[in-house]
């Protein structure tokens, strides 16, 4: 009996030791069902430290925070307990049912995996109306709006979409990033460049707000019916005033993350009327002028003239074809050269397009260029209009007579004649010259002669000393990089440092410094500046991802900091961060 009792005790101890030594690695979520306007927290917990932690891809979510790492150790009844956690904060990209895949980690040479977790994302849910809740205050004081100039345009009529971020006077935005870009799959679209964010005063639902224009886009619908514009969505870091105050009585601010969306917009595109539509209508919509001109109306046979067919005005200039010319067979016509001089602004495309034909007459005579018509739809009068050019007579004063025109064997299959070359084609080349000898000057044995002969020999010792010092300096690779980086940082940030007492001037100068540095370092123009383009170029130059992220966050801070509560300490922090980031980029760039 005693032996059986002892065996039982041993088994209990073995089971207990195995239980205490068991490795746990699991994923915990704050909720399994949430609205698209809510956040999800995911914790990956382990009871023993490990290496090579790999989170899931989070492909259906945007990571708005994390990974945050925490470690805790404690003793309970004489037993050591360890816990390590990796935390992520996620924002859903769309509604639906999704699966958080497995995370992996290596512990004591073994690979451990978490269990996949199903998450359901519903439509937006209402949040409690708590005046002291920072999330609620942010949702009530920040709004992203898409303003559409016309909700029921005609096919190929220009409309504009302007995205505005409204921020109340009691709230600020210290950082933002785009998580969903609007899509215009059934439109011809053109973004209008915005040079910096300009803070303006306005109203939202009758209340005073400040706002910035984030994006301007011109659209030309290419289909009729109800067309969808996908929404623009942003992730914001919002500064919200609290009820707490500092020792000087100023209100303390707290930061919360918020996702805002401009909402989906539906554009009802009308078909162009069938009544009165010309047979030669090719889809031109707008307000246009039309003209046909020639570079000359009198010339000799085998000389050339330019025939120009041009449409100018305001409308869908790049989206229709110009009418073609039909000329007499005795005029040799070459394929036209198409030219576009079009600019796009908020009222749509403006400028002109043209087809330039080279025409060569072969025989003497008078040749009519018949009238050409161009038709378009005028959206102002909602009617079709036609413009016709005048007939142009081309007078060929010299050349062979067209006596072979009636002889079938002398014509080609298309009733066109071979171009007759002019005997004086090369008459402009001069065959006689008028050369004169160059006057010589006495140089031998002058002071300049002896100086030019001796000075190079005197410079040899100095060149050797300079070369030796340069070799020593070039060998100091690390020192050279540090000196170069510090020099660039001082050069580009000097103006910003002078303006530390003026918030708006400081951030303008800081933004200009960052842009000028990139322009000099990456050889790109200001028009190429975009967050994605900068990240792509710096990553291609082998700059660390964390440094690239710091640089883009600085640019975003400069754009919005002018209407965000800021102190001198904040500006000094941004200045120091900019200096260190420029220095790091200059050291790492390849």
Automatic annotation (TrEMBL):
InterPro entries: BatD. Pfam families: BatD (PF13584). This is BatD protein. It comes from the Bacteria. The keyword Signal applies. The chain crosses the membrane at residues 448-466. Keywords: Membrane, Signal, Transmembrane, Transmembrane helix. The lineage of its organism: Bacteria, Pseudomonadati, Bacteroidota, Flavobacteriia, Flavobacteriales. Residues 1-21 form the signal peptide. The keyword Amino-acid biosynthesis does not apply.
């Amino acid at each position: 009996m005693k032996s059986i009792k002892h065996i039982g005790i041993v088994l209990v101890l073995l089971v207990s030791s195995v239980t205490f030594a068991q490795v746990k690695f699991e994923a915990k979520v704050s909720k399994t069902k949430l609205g698209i306007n809510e956040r999800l927290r995911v914790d990956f917990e382990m009871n023993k430290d490990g290496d090579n932690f790999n989170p899931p891809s989070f492909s259906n979510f945007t990571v708005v925070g994390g990974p945050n790492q925490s470690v805790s150790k404690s003793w309970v009844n004489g037993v050591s307990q360890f816990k390590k956690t990796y935390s992520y904060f996620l924002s859903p990209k769309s509604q639906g049912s999704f699966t958080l895949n497995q995370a992996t980690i290596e512990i004591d040479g073994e690979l451990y995996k978490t269990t996949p977790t199903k998450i359901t994302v519903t439509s937006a849910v209402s949040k409690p109306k708590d005046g002291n809740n920072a999330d609620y205050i942010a949702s009530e004081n920040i709004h992203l709006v898409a303003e559409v100039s016309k909700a029921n345009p005609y096919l190929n009529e220009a409309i504009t979409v302007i995205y505005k971020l409204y921020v109340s006077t009691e709230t600020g935005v210290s950082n933002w990033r785009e998580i969903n870009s609007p899509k215009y799959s059934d439109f011809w679209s053109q973004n209008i460049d915005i040079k910096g964010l300009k803070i303006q005063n306005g109203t939202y639902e009758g209340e005073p707000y400040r706002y910035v224009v984030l994006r301007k886009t011109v659209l030309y619908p290419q289909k009729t019916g109800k067309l969808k514009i996908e929404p623009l969505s942003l992730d914001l870091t919002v500064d919200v005033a609290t009820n707490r105050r500092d020792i000087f009585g100023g209100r303390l601010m707290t930061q919360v993350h918020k996702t805002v969306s401009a909402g989906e917009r539906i554009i009802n595109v009308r078909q162009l009327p069938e009544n009165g539509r010309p047979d030669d209508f090719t889809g031109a919509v707008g307000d246009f002028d039309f003209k046909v001109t020639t570079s000359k109306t009198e010339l000799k046979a085998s000389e050339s003239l330019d025939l120009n067919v041009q449409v100018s005005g305001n409308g869908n200039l790049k989206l229709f074809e110009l009418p073609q010319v039909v000329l007499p067979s005795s005029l040799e016509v070459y394929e036209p050269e198409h030219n576009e001089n079009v600019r796009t602004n908020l009222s749509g495309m403006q400028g002109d397009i043209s087809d330039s034909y080279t025409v060569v007459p072969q025989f003497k005579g008078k040749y009519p260029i018949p009238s050409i018509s161009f038709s378009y739809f005028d959206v102002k009068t909602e009617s079709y209009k036609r413009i016709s050019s005048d007939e142009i007579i081309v007078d060929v004063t010299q050349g062979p007579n067209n006596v072979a025109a009636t002889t079938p064997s002398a014509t080609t299959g298309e009733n066109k004649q071979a171009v007759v070359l002019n005997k004086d084609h090369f008459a402009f080349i001069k065959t006689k010259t008028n050369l004169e000898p160059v006057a010589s000057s006495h140089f031998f044995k002058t002071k300049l002669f002896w100086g030019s002969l001796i000075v190079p020999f005197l410079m040899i010792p100095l060149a050797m000393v300079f070369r030796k010092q340069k070799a020593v300096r070039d060998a100091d690779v690390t020192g050279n990089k540090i000196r170069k980086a510090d020099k660039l940082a001082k050069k580009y940030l000097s103006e910003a440092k002078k303006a530390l007492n003026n918030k708006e001037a400081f951030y303008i100068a800081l933004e200009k410094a960052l842009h000028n540095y990139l322009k000099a370092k990456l050889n790109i123009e200001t028009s190429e500046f975009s967050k994605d383009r900068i990240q792509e170029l710096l990553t291609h130059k082998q700059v660390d991802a964390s440094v690239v992220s710091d640089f883009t966050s600085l640019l975003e801070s400069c754009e919005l900091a002018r209407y965000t509560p800021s102190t001198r300490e904040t500006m000094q922090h941004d200045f120091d961060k900019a200096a260190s980031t420029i220095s790091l980029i200059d050291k790492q760039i390849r």
